[in-house]
Design goal:
The chain is of the alpha/beta class and about 425 residues long. The N terminus is likely disordered. Bound molecules: zinc ion.
Length: about 425
């Protein structure tokens, strides 16, 4: 053995391997921060971060070159309303969870994460799970590289009133649920604080609270209010103690306004938002995260009989109302993020919502910003996500064609890189 080999064997000398450098040639590069398109750019990536972006600089000889010069490169997409950890899409009925173990649901969620990533979504804000903390497990399995999936920011459980929009309803009163199927139940400001303290301790990234009834819950009325203003304020205050933001589910006009006044970061669905609600959201800088595509899937499930009938009754007319209100909110200049309620429509099809966002009043660039720079802002991670800039994570995608001319090219993402690693090429 040579002396150096002996030292290496003994662990006395470590030879640092040179940083992996990747150079991407981007024919067109969309910058959502400025709403502009750059051409003939070189993106230099060191390990998992973007090192430099620009024109005409020399590519280091050691770099691995990826040629996307005939494509349009965008930041990795962000879906701000997903439910990746809810298992297989085999039933539209939450009662199906009573037939599965938590482990089964978690493992069934593995393909959901992969489909999401391969369709171009490198980050998701996951906003609730029936089996509490399955989302934390999925997030961590992805982060450790056990399975492929987007970066996940997770809620841990639904914070909901008993029998409310996020509760497991439709079962007999003498059936005792396991802890993880009613973990987020709370019925006073102090119970709300208690649940949020537990969730913070469990390592969640944000809080999901249900401010009105829901469409896809038995015995629920989306036109109702659920948590009181006092409970919503307690939620935002307690979450803020832990540096957590709050996303509020709300369909009814009153539920939406209660949530905005309480100081939530985003209102999910925002279906029946009225003019006062739109003005309040604008004034407070609250994001609206409106899932205006999934009506297509709810109607399709209605035709094929794969959704409970009471859910369809809740949904009657709400789809069109939500789309019309989306248009009003865009026109008023409210902050809008991209969220689809993935799981209602099949995982991997979120990008179909872009065409609906442009149909209902957004420019293609605004729709792209909703899923990149604005989504990163809503997450509170604009410093590392949402655009292709030095210092940010190397999360980027590429499509053939120009999404500013035809937004539907985003439904067919051909290249996906997350954290400097190519998952689809
Ligand atoms: Zn949802």
């Amino acid at each position: 053995m040579k002396p150096l080999a002996i030292l290496l064997t003994l662990g006395l000398v470590s030879i640092a391997s040179p940083a992996q450098i990747t150079a991407i040639k981007a024919g067109r590069l969309i910058d959502p921060d400025t709403g502009t398109v750059l051409t003939e750019q070189i993106i230099l990536i060191r390990e998992n971060k973007i090192d430099a972006v620009g024109k005409g600089f020399a590519i280091p000889a050691s770099a691995k070159v990826i040629d996307l010069s005939k494509m349009t490169v965008l930041p990795g997409l962000i879906d701000c309303h997903t439910h990746l950890a809810d298992g297989a899409e085999d039933s539209g009925d939450p009662l199906a969870y009573l037939k599965k173990t938590a482990a089964q649901v978690a493992l069934e969620s593995v393909p959901n994460a992969r489909a999401m990533l391969e369709s171009g979504f490198t980050t998701v804000r996951d906003v609730g799970v029936y089996r509490a903390l399955n989302d934390v497990a999925l997030r961590d399995a992805i982060a450790r590289g056990y399975i492929a999936g987007p970066r996940m920011f997770v809620a841990g459980a639904y914070v909901t009133i008993t029998g409310g929009a996020g509760a497991m309803t439709g079962i007999a009163p003498d059936i005792q649920l396991p802890w993880d199927l009613h973990y987020g139940e709370a019925n006073s400001p102090w119970e709300v604080r208690q649940v949020i303290r537990k969730l913070a301790n469990d390592g969640v990234d944000h809080i999901k609270i249900l401010s009105s009834g829901a469409v896809l819950t038995h015995g629920s009325n989306p036109k109702s209010q659920e948590f009181t203003p006092e409970e919503l304020q307690a939620a935002v205050d307690e979450a803020n103690h832990f540096g957590l933001r709050v996303a509020a589910h709300a369909h009814s006009a009153a539920g939406i306004k209660n949530a905005i006044r309480a100081g939530v970061a985003s209102v999910e669905h925002a279906t029946m938002i009225d003019d006062e609600g739109i003005a309040l959201a604008k004034e407070r800088g609250t994001y609206l995260d409106m899932d205006i595509y999934d009506e297509e899937c709810i109607e399709e499930q209605g035709r094929t009989g794969t959704i409970p009938k009471d859910f369809l009754q809740h949904d009657a007319e709400l789809g069109q109302i939500q789309r019309d209100n989306f248009r009003k909110a865009v026109k008023a200049g409210v902050k809008m993020s991209f969220g689809t309620d993935a799981g209602v429509c099949p995982y991997g099809t979120s990008a179909k919502q872009f065409a609906f966002m442009t149909k209902y009043g957004m420019t293609p660039m605004q729709a792209i910003q909703a899923a990149t720079s604005s989504a990163a802002d809503l997450l509170g991670h604009s410093d590392e996500l949402g655009s292709i800039k030095p210092g940010k994570f190397a999360d980027l995608i590429a499509v053939s064609g120009d999404p500013l001319q035809d937004i539907r090219v985003l439904e067919n993402v051909q290249f996906v890189m997350k954290d400097g690693k190519a998952y689809k090429q």
